[in-house]
Amino acid sequence: MIDDPTSIPLGAVLADLGPAAKLVAGAASQQSRQVRGAVVLLKPEDLPADMDVVVICPGAESFSDLAAATHHGLGRVIFVTASESSLSEGIEAVGEQHVVIAVDPALNVADVVMSFSRSMQMPEESVSRRLASLQRALSQAMTETEPIPALLSRLAHVCNATAVLIDRFGKTVHATGPTPMSLLFEEIGRTSADSQNVDVDGWRGVAARISAPDEADSHFGWLVVTARRANFPDSHSTSAAHVAATLVEASQRMAVAARQQERAIRTAVLEEALALRREPHNPELAARITAFGLSFADDLRTIVFRPIRPAVGSRSLPATEDLSEILGKALESQSIAYLMTAKDKTLTIAAQCSVQAFRRVIVAEGSKLPGALIGIGRSVHALGDILDSYQDAQLAVRTLRRNSRGPKVMAYEDFNYATRLFADVGFDKMIKWAQEFLKPLEGRELLVEGLQTYFEHAQNINAAADFLQIHHNSLRYRIAKAEEILGINLREPGAVSSVFLALTALELGRIQQPRPKSSGDTGRSRRPSDVEASDVLPYSRPSAERAGVVRAPGR
Asked: Does 265 reside within a domain?
């Protein structure tokens, strides 16, 4: 038994054992747990009362053989000299209460005990100084503009070897020299240990596992240091590789945090620009926009990207965050400055590019993006034009929804006469006209819903009725009643355009209308993200039970 008041992290012991030890029950975060020694459990009475002392159970072939170690107290750390496959039964139940590490049966129990002993030894002062100097030399690379390439260059110089960073699929992210990576990765991929030595075709080295910066219990790839020397890697090179791996993980996490912060700032700036109403001239906001590389002197467009599901039963749409990540990287790869915000499963982008350039981006990323309706607004030449361009893009998406078989991208230049009229007359005026035109339908939610669904389904009675889950004659009655109240005939093109534009104006007004403050908001300042929707006409989708079925003369 080893019982020492000095505590060490469990991960230090696992690193010393290498691929021969694997965590099979318990969270990966348990590797930071402090332990104070180990005891080989031969008899139940040998079980230590201290829960920080590791219990080693030799000869156990299943979890049923661990009864003596698991029935007294919770939260023990148990080492079992058995294969992982033999411990598969009962692993979930034990993992909720204890931490279990499977050790290769070929490894002697004495070797496991000695691993604890080595991990608890205090290093000599010269060794500590050498490690501190090594860490300082490598960490200075973090001040460079591109820290990871600089870090790998220093690591290669310190070890007199080749340093390579690869992802979990074996693709080289950065390398300081040529290596047979396909052979090395085949060897590395055989185990999920945090660190391992490799020896392939005369190439010897050490591989350190790199955790994923944005996914728990996952890994990004490997940091490999290799050379064609018989005595490589030595203890100094192994330590350098582990220090460098930690710095790579830290750099990646900082990069993810910086991207998330920048995305939040971009979102806030764009939402503030879209929320401008009576005060479109804001020099401070314009300066913040130009700080992100956007210029009102060049072609600047507002784009609305609304994903659509291509068919019934198809796979679900990707999350909005994933879409924004894909589009953001695509725009950055083309050196296109942009701002982006997400709301109601729709992305809104202000991008410094032409219509043709954005179309090329969509085509290039076609395999990664879901089907979508994309509206591109007019060119922005001043801060106050951003809202107009955004309304153009919303109008384009609304128009595309009416034609399921047509193109999926529409720009301001593609507007027909009626749509261009709506866009250029002005949003506020069109809202006012729409409210006046549809005022006779105020309070008749079923009729408004029927008209909206009718136009959303390309004026197809049967498709709209199926969507509403009512009989097609019931929808015909609603439309006929709406025609009677409005004094129009939807067989006439002018009436169709009038109703469509009025409904479109109300929908855009609902999207753009600022959310009224509740009584609990009085003590909170107004923020750009408070721009939400409120209906211009009081309307909510009724249930099918309220709809009823009424037959009317055929239309």
From this structure: no
